[in-house]
Amino acid sequence: EAALRESARCLKCVDAPCQKSCPTQLDVKSFIGAISNKNYYGAARAILSDNPLGLTCGMVCPTSDLCVGGCNLDASEEGPINIGGLQHFAVEMFKKMKIAQVLPPDVPSPLPASYKAKIGLIGCGPASISAATFLGRLGYNDVTIFEKEDYVGGLNTSELPSYRLPYDVINFEIDLMKDL
């Protein structure tokens, strides 16, 4: 209910300063519009297609300095749109749906021999999780992440307190990566 009210406040600006200030180039208008239409899957798809760590970012990104800081409603009585909260909501709803990631339909089948190359990524932090997800979406299926620690998630796991970023969030994003 609160997410629907918040998403309905969005002006869907033509120049969308919120999108321009997002380092992941998230299609903010698209996912907020999907939430306002109760299309939570579509909202999560818009988020996760641009950013495989969409739930993490919805929870820990400094939105007040980035997208929310650029919101045209900043000077309004109700203040700017809670973009991070809406992002968190959309991906949490998707998480509850328990839908596995699948290869996009435009991935060639059968795959050319070059797609069978072994790819190694060092450290299972946010960069490797994102890279492995994007490589998987392209059709590469022999991607290995090498991690020296006993845990995955990199600094998100070791440095962020679990009340700020629960371990199940990191595990959810790793499971999405493994689906591919």
Let me know the average pLDDT. Answer: 94
Number of strands: 2
Radius of gyration: 17 Å
**Shape label:** globular
Which class of secondary structure composition applies to the elements? mainly alpha
Strand percent estimate = under 5%
Q: Specify the biggest β-sheet.
A: 2 strands, parallel
The neighbouring-strand order within the major sheet is: 1-2
Percent range for helical residues?
40-55%
Low-confidence stretches: none
- What is the string of SSEs from the N terminus onward? HHHHHHHEHEHH
For the termini, the CA-CA separation is 33 Å
Number of helices: 10
Commentary on this structure:
With 180 residues, the protein is mainly alpha-helical. The chain is built from 10 helices and 2 strands; from the N terminus they run H-H-H-H-H-H-H-E-H-E-H-H. Strands 1-2 form a two-stranded parallel ribbon. The protein is globular.
